[in-house]
Amino acid sequence: MERMSKSIMKILKVSWMQRLLRIIIGGIFIYASFDKIIHPDRLAEIIMDYEILPWSLTNISAIWLPCLELIVGVLVIGGIWVRISSFLLIGLMVLFIGGISYSLARGISLHCGCFSTGSSSAARSWISLWQEGLLLVGCVWLWATTLKKG
Length: 150
Fold this sequence. Notes:
- The protein is mainly α.
- The chain has one domain.
- Helices cover 73% and strands 0% of the residues.
- It is built from 6 helices and no strands.
- It is globular.
- The two termini are 20 Å apart.
- The relative contact order is 0.15.
């Protein structure tokens, strides 16, 4: 069993695989931040649709959230503070999955605003959460492969 887990960790620590994952995950978060940075007013409306945050926190969230996505995405791609950055991405993914799940459980139909603040995207559903789940797994994998040996 221990031999098997060592083999899995060897595969996970392959530097080219980690670089590829950093580029993919960082690129996704950078791309996702662009439209939200350009249209914080639309993002604030989308955040209000979730009916979780009060208006006073919605506006500030619409400003700092895409900036955080952009900064952390750049850090991940650049290989700078990868462990901390991937941990922040895990937190963001848990926040996004939790917010979408909470709203869906209350029967609220919403557009997540993940990549666009426009209303042309399809409404979120329980089935569509696989995308966030897959990205969360990638972030956890990236974080786990940067753990220092104790």
